[in-house]
């Protein structure tokens, strides 16, 4: 026989003697590196040669590589030609492995721990008929389930019995030291899908069950018997009863061949105070054990009569399952995935591409005569590796919303704490009023953001009343109409300490009068208005008083040193409005002075305001002056800045 050279490439097909065949999985085998923890985990279990196969002189064609993650399948061609294919999985279990090793290799306990936390988990055995699916899930029938505890576990016990034992042990450990309330309850159900019909294996006398759809549970079997299992023996009774009632037939490839897909479910409801607020919520964990009927070739199984019909139905549903797996592995979602084409895929919707954790065990025979079926199973399993699920804890919708809100509150609290720390505020207690305005004012925040790292165009600070003065100064532009400006100047309560933070300052003024203009009248030359009560600029101004305002007309060229940081923040204010808001709006727009109202009248000031606004319409906010607008205003007024200070 020619020496076989294994040129294994990870997770792909490897070819020899020029023979090449594509992988049936639509995705590149290299996509392995992109697999996440939510991908379906896929393991391979190789069944040893049976006595009959030995007797026939069969050889083994499936080998596990040293890394224990890939299997190589050697296919005999014509003459001495052989083709070797290599597939990579999450793990491989060899023919000599015992049942407890399977439990370990596939990390069953991790899945079960998730069930205790409220997740749904699925373990599914697939493969051709006689490849060891039922053996893997349930063990050998004759030795089944009459034990008292883990130590008594029989060597041949399958995953279901071992998982039940583990769950009871874990529940016992978790409940230790708790009060009298029972935090976990366990129930079991067992049904089969036989020729597209769902039978409750725990109530054989009952009519076939309907499969219904609900937005909460997806597809589910209606009126299924759920047996309360207080002890391990209760679970074993369910297993024995269900196992006894399964449809089994005998054909050439397996004397105890399952003629139906069987799903045994352990429902683990747990009461848990997740948020620690003394309101426990119920989480609905579920562990599904799916023992699929095996695919079979009639030529080999030689099924006939009723069995022929069963085989047709089994192969059809497995074909649909293949289509679903293939669609999901291509990343398709929603209605494009043909879940509804068979009862099996409907009921596995959560497990394949849904909210469940899932694990697939591809069972294969090591016999060379079964190489075609083995390859087909491995291709199938390779596709399944690409399926991504989105596991989530099962709980009532109300509890879900409550948890979401609680999470949001915790997040906001955290954010609030962080912001208070940044603002240098104490971490407890309520905010004082000015503090509150300061910390919530979007303009103040915006200002801080905008002026950070931006140097001012010039600076000369020496005017304590710049806020009031400047408001009047801008206000003059609109005369009486702009009564909003006067209002601004008449604030009942301006925070001087806030205005001191404003970086828009005026110290002195150099006016360049227009040619031919004479001074002495407020109508000629640049006119500035100073705040009437505080004459910071008054020394050099000629005051004319008209009753309502105090125009300041400059009699000689003076110096104005003007500086303005970008979007200078002038200060906070509050007051009541009894002015025509229109003026305020103009003030705001034309001079690019933004008035940020935080109080009740903000909306009205913005649009659809009434002509009269009562005194009760108190408002508060911050004022910001745009640098460019400020400079333009100076130029409009024919005011030059001091040489070298501001270069316009
Ligand atoms: N790993 C194994 N070690 C020993 N015996 C095994 C192993 N796997 C399977 N067998 C034996 O092989 C036979 C067929 O196994 P099993 O009934 O589990 O196959 P199956 O895949 O469920 O077949 P079907 O799809 O027809 O129901 C059984 O007698 C079983 O005890």
From TrEMBL:
Matches recorded under SMART domains: KISc
Q: Where does ATP bind?
A: 127-134
In terms of domain of life, where is this protein from? Answer: Eukaryota
Which keywords describe this protein according to UniProt? ATP-binding, Coiled coil, Microtubule, Motor protein, Nucleotide-binding
Gene3D superfamilies from the entry?
Kinesin motor domain
Question: What residue stretches are annotated with the Kinesin motor domain?
Answer: 39-387
- Family in the record: Belongs to the TRAFAC class myosin-kinesin ATPase superfamily. Kinesin family.
Name of the protein? Kinesin-like protein
What are the Basic and acidic residues biased-composition ranges? Answer: 7-22
User: PROSITE patterns, from UniProt?
Assistant: KINESIN_MOTOR_1 (PS00411), KINESIN_MOTOR_2 (PS50067)
Q: Where does the record place a coiled coil?
A: 395-422
InterPro entries documented for this protein: Kinesin-like_fam, Kinesin_motor_CS, Kinesin_motor_dom, Kinesin_motor_dom_sf, P-loop_NTPase
Pfam families registered for this protein in UniProt:
Kinesin
């Amino acid at each position: 026989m020619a020496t076989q050279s294994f040129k294994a490439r990870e997770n792909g097909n490897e070819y020899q003697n020029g023979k090449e065949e594509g992988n049936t999985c639509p995705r590149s085998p290299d996509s392995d590196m992109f697999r996440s923890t939510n991908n379906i985990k896929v393991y391979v279990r190789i069944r040893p040669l049976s006595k009959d196969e030995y007797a026939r002189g069969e050889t083994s064609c499936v080998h596990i590589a040293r890394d224990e993650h890939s299997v190589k399948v050697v296919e005999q061609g014509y003459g001495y030609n052989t083709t070797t294919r290599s597939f990579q999985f999450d793990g491989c279990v060899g023919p000599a492995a015992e049942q407890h090793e399977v439990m370990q290799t596939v990390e069953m306990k991790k899945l079960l721990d998730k069930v205790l936390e409220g997740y749904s988990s699925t373990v599914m055995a697939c493969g051709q008929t006689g490849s060891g699916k039922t053996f893997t899930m349930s063990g050998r029938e004759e030795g089944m389930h009459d034990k008292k505890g883990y130590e008594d576990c029989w060597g041949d016990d399958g995953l279901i019995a071992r998982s039940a034992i583990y769950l009871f042990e874990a529940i016992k450990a978790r409940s230790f030291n708790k009060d009298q309330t029972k935090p976990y309850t366990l129930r079991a159900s067992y049904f089969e899908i036989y020729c597209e019909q769902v039978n409750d294996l725990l109530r054989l006398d009952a009519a076939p069950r309907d499969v219904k759809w609900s937005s909460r549970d997806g597809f589910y079997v209606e009126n299924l018997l759920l047996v309360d299992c207080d002890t391990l023996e209760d679970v074993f009774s369910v297993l024995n009863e269900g196992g006894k009632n399964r449809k089994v037939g005998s054909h050439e490839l397996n004397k105890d061949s399952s003629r139906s897909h069987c799903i045994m479910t352990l429902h683990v409801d747990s009461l848990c105070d997740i948020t620690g607020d003394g309101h426990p919520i119920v989480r609905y964990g579920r562990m599904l054990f799916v023992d699929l009927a095996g695919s079979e070739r009639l030529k080999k199984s030689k099924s006939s009569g009723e069995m022929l019909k069963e085989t047709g139905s089994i192969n059809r549903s497995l074909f649909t399952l293949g289509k679903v797996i293939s669609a999901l592995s291509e990343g398709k979602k929603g209605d494009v995935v043909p879940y509804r084409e068979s009862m099996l895929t409907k009921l596995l919707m959560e497990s394949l591409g849904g909210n469940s954790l899932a694990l697939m065990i591809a069972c294969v025979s090591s016999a060379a005569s079964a190489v075609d079926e083995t390859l087909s199973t491995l291709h199938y399993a390779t596709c399944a590796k690409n399926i991504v699920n989105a596991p989530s804890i099962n709980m009532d919708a109300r509890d879900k919303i409550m948890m979401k809100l609680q999470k949001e509150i915790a997040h906001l609290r955290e954010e609030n704490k962080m912001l208070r720390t940044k603002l240098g505020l104490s971490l407890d207690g309520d905010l004082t009023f000015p503090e509150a305005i300061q910390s919530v004012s979007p303009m103040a925040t915006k200002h801080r953001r905008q002026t950070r790292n931006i140097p001012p165009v010039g600076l000369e600070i020496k005017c304590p009343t710049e806020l009031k003065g400047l408001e009047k100064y801008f206000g003059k532009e609109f005369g009486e109409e702009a009564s909003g400006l006067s209002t601004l100047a008449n604030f009942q309560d301006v925070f001087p300490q806030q205005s001191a933070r404003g970086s828009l300052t005026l110290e002195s003024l150099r006016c360049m009068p227009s040619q031919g203009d004479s001074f002495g009248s407020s109508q000629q030359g640049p006119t500035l208005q100073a705040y009437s009560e505080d004459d910071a600029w008054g020394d050099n101004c000629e005051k004319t008083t008209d009753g309502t305002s105090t125009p300041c007309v400059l009699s000689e060229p003076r110096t104005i040193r003007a500086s303005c940081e970008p979007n200078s923040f002038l200060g906070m204010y509050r007051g009541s409005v009894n002015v025509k808001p229109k003026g305020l709006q103009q003030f705001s727009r034309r001079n690019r002075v933004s008035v940020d109202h935080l109080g009740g009248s903000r909306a009205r000031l913005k649009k659809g305001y009434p002509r009269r606004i009562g005194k009760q319409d108190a408002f508060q906010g911050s004022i910001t002056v745009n640098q460019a607008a400020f400079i333009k205003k100076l130029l409009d007024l024919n005011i030059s800045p001091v040489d070298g200070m501001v270069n316009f």
